[in-house]
Queue: 2 jobs
Job 1
Amino acid sequence: MKRRTLFAAATAVATLALTVPAFAQETLKIGAVGPKTGPLAGGAAVSFWPNVQLWAHDVNEAGGITVGGTSYMVEIIEYDDQTNPGETIKAVQRLATQDEADFILAPYSTGLNIAAAPIFQRYGYPMVTHTAISDQIEDLSNKFPNMYFLLGGATGLAGGVVDVLTDMREAGEIGNRVAMVNVADAFGIELASVGKPQLEEAGFEIVYETSYPLGTQDLSPVINGAKDSNPDAFVAWSYPPDTFGLTEQAQIAGLAPKAFYTAVATAFPAYAGRFGAAAEGVLGAGGVYADGDQFKEYAARHEAVTGAKPDFWASAPTYATFEILHQAIEGAGSTDKEAVAEYIANNSFETVIGPVDWDENNSNAKYWTVGQWQGGVFKGVASTGRDGAVAAMPKSGWE
Amino acid sequence: MMTTTEYRNLAIGAALFILAACLPFVGGAYLLTIGVTIAMYTVLATSWALFSGPTHYISLATAAFFGLGTYTTGLGFEHLDYWLLVPLAAILGAALAAIVGVATLRLSGVYFVIFTLGLAELIRQLVTWGQNVSGQKGLYVLTDLTEVHIYWQLLVLAALVYLTGWLIGRSRLGFALRIIGDDEEVARHSGINTARAKVLLFMVSGAAAAATGAILAPRYIYIEPALAFTPMLSFQVVIMALLGGTGRLWGPVVGVIPFTFLWEAISASFPNQTTLLLGLCFLAIVFILPKGFVGLLTTIRTRMNAREAFS
């Protein structure tokens, strides 16, 4: 009984008592698999699990998902995959065959999503991924036609940085000199390898370039090297621990260029929590239309229900994938997986991140690429076609 | 010459193998997924015990060989025929084990344990470094292989491991290893080339783990260092083998099967405490069943014999 989210049942009972009993009450079993332990547990605890909780709360509070004359409450069945693809496969298989889940939310992270894709495909579950970033979306969507991608790709994310820097250069705020560093792990490597040629093509001079292993404790050589090269812009394709480490070290060493960019986790509320006013003007991967009413309402609900603020990158798209599933079930007027999958393929959706539709590779082509801390909020400054971007401003020191 | 008992054991083994091969026809997809997990850990734990059982050298290098195998498939499958990759991975695994073995098997005790643990991390860092230089991220192994294919491949591999183990047990090498396990000094004085014997066995173990990795790569599809070289794998293999007991060839599988179901039950029922409960199980196994199920059986048999003697 513990694995069933109790509040789903509790909410269902409460709602039952309040609503006019004109609709028959049914339950949809929704599976959720993600890391609660292992290397990715920290990220999932910020971007994934709170949104699962919030979505179930929102749906049930609004009276469930309405299909025909019936409203379905959602019951979440959660499993921990321990950041291990073998466990993800087992958990999704268990959901499909043992729990007979009606739908399964996409797992967390690129590797775990792709490992689970064949099982989603075999049982016909639509799979709208929120945190899978791949440079092989075309191959994947050919192989797994039920698989959709919402968060964008490395080329766009790196391209956004180059666009922002180019704009700042044209405005006369920065010069040509870029110091570029990357964490020698997975996504950091990919961003660096697509980012470097784009920077060079845009006419930037890379005056310092280095990489460091994931988990490096002492980042002072990296920052000192960058500082000695006297850059106009500092770009770090970094991961959560080093995003924090590099920022801290830059403050200590007094590396304060007009453009300071760190990648993953800059958009986390914890970043502003740690650096306070010094975070002002820092650029990072992701972003949202932070001034939009949709996001503001979502953020307020997120905090009220889960007790934590959403991050300014993956949180809202994660919630959006659940909204898409919700709308597709209602739109298809059926809880049949195939009908819902077909509805997803042929429709666009209005979500917390704005309208979402699919390109020829089942991918959302319009996503946020760069954000900047401005007045305590991480605002989107560049995207591949989203509304609501604000202008990037030059950073003025660490005070 | 083979004795009647040995013929009988071979026949039982073959019958069990055929029975296991029928799982995809009788069990559902869920049982098959569990079956793949059991087959995978059976190969890994049995081949681990082939080396560590008689020599008492605890190797934590399973993840290193396993990762090597997944990368063999990941890097090679666009250039080579898939069916060549598994044997190739086995050869590479054996070669790596030989190099490592020659360098370290003269070490003993805790030095060897630490080295093997570091080996997986070392190779993982090398792969990461290679990726950083080449700018390439994860690898994709998109094939048409399904879980049934992977399950059968693992079963065949398991059969090969058992056959190898059985042959080694009957050979001079197996005899030499048992002596090394009892007292390495005595073995050396009896004229046994202890280093050579240990390296050979380590190579068998490494080859089997690498082949397992190569077979499983199409199941994971997406290969990256953090997933392929996860140190958890090495520990799981050790704990499963110890639960079964390393004294007999069939020991590890007796540990793998209950442990897989236990693991599954914990994962399904306590998604928020999985790791905690697994840790408690590890402790329980070490304290309550230090010699595994094999040891438990031996103890029971000895007691029963003693009782008969008194009556």
Job 2
Amino acid sequence: MRQKIYTFLSLMIVWIIFAGKLTWDVFLVGGAASLLVSYFFSDMLFRKMSLDNNVFTHLKKFCLIIAFIPVFFYEAFIAALKVSRYAFSRKLDLNPGIIKVKTHLIDVTAITLLANLITLTPGTLTVDFDKSERCYYIHWLDVETKEEAETRKALLGRFEKWLEVIYH
Amino acid sequence: MIIRLTFAYLLMIMGAFFAIVTVIGLIRFPDVYTRIHAGAVVLTISAVLVCVGSAIYVWDFLLSLKILLVGGFFLFSNPMATHAIAKASYKRGIALPVEKTIDEYSTYLRRDSE
């Protein structure tokens, strides 16, 4: 039930932002649509909401995610500059390769988020995730080291620490 | 006012620069996987930069929020699409990497690379 209420509220907020004004007709149409969607598909947006009932932990998680965005954007910007250096270099000097990197994360959402973050920083691209061994297969534009520990540090390092704090 | 506008223009110009980088990368890089790096991932950064720049440019609460939401959807949907393209083209063998120093995914799929 609680899951459904949260889904309904977040859908309504997104709808009002997209509509751009707050009148009765907008409110009614959006309310009807998000009521239907939240009745049928509420388990897709928030998982395991009933397990821990503390509102404070959710609030903390949300604030940490908001605080994470600038950090991530800085990293992505630096990586994009690196890729543009490759694109403009006179002689194309790449050594791409697909490597295997293990992760500690257990939570499914955290694994998905980490895969997305790895893909979003240019220069690395998640190809697949192996569930049984808990490792990512990552295509790297410029393979610096083949050592297990060093690749972990270079690729996952900071992001994994953040996600471990958020989804402990 | 002037500071805000210059900041917005700066962000938009950076986005345009990354879009140019995307095109040059698409032409110059050797195979599918390296082209994905330029063609999808740098493009995401450029699109988000342009979105943030225009959100600062209009500076109207609901309108800016709407543009930022569009940027957020870019951030969510683009990595999924890139990942799907890369995985499908590798697993089906549509296009295998041309240049590579190391390839551990082929051993995972039990495929002889050499």
